[in-house]
Amino acid sequence: AGAAGIGLAAATLSATGAHAQEQAGGAFAGKTAFITGGARGIGLACAEELAKGGANVVLYDIAAQPAEIPYPMATEEDLANAKATVESHGVKCLAIKGDVRDFDALQAAVAQTQSEFGSLDFLIVNAGITQPGRLGGFDEEQVRTITDINLIGSINTMQAAMPMMQEQGSGRIILMASTTGRAGSDNFPLYGATKWAMIGLAKSAALTVAPLNITVNAVCPTLVRTKLLDNEYVLNALAPGQGVTFEQFDALANQQIHPMDVGFYEPVEVGRTVAFLCGDGAQFISGEVVDIGAAANARFPA
Ligand code: NAD
């Protein structure tokens, strides 16, 4: 069965596996990644995994604290540190302070990417916030803020970057959705609704750019160790007045959510999946939803 076709391809791959790994440093050489929300967390992990493969990186992050966002965003210092971290992998990095709610600023950032690097090969639509609470209990500002950032911000990012990618006729687009975009969520209904919408956006965009061999996919992590959940506002909303720590929440995640023994897993795990979707092994993977669930999605709750 290994004489031809897929069998032979698999045998060749495994025979050259060690060599391929040594060469992995160059898999993305000459490419450019544009990552929203790249100053920390999952966005920064994606930046690092792509930079390790040789891609230059543009980090686009709000790096400021607007009053309507209820927990700490990345700071200017985080953004500067993220740039240095990316550059430590031997690539160039442009750090741009900007809000995904600002379409003009996104367009300017894409134009800057064009003049600095000449291409935009990997678009990682990652900036997002969460907003815990129960339906029926949100005020209008909470509804608008999360919708403006997670949904309209994602649309803005794609609309700003896609013309350049379409003109160059190549590229990979990845939207950072969530497991809450795959089922209902009692504690994160607004967040979940924006993530369902992002999956819809990914599928429609995949059709639009398919003739150009550009792929578009959504990635759905479950629970990742980042400031999105590791902050007092979110922990207090989930267990009001109980002083639940992130470590306790982590232990709960370990027992009740992931059948694999991972608790909150690290952002690098998401970065690796994103790098796979940007690589040669994912050429015909498009319009798909890639779940990173550590077996959570396999479970019937009994
Ligand atoms: P994070 O809060 O550490 O990172 C989010 C980044 O986005 C921050 O650097 C923040 O400054 C930036 N940002 C927020 N609003 C912005 C705006 N309006 N414009 C530009 N930048 C903005 O959280 P994270 O967990 O790394 O989140 C990254 C993405 O992953 C989000 O879309 C999130 O919904 C998604 N996600 C996270 C988890 C998780 O468990 N942490 C699970 C599934 C999906």
UniProtKB/TrEMBL annotation:
CDD domains: SDR_c (cd05233)
Phosphoprotein listed as a keyword: no
Keywords recorded for this protein, A-Z: Oxidoreductase, Signal
Stored InterPro entries: NAD(P)-bd_dom_sf, Sc_DH/Rdtase_CS, SDR_fam, TAT_signal
Full protein name: SDR family NAD(P)-dependent oxidoreductase
One Pfam family per UniProt: adh_short
PROSITE patterns for the chain: ADH_SHORT (PS00061), TAT (PS51318)
Similarity-based family: Belongs to the short-chain dehydrogenases/reductases (SDR) family.
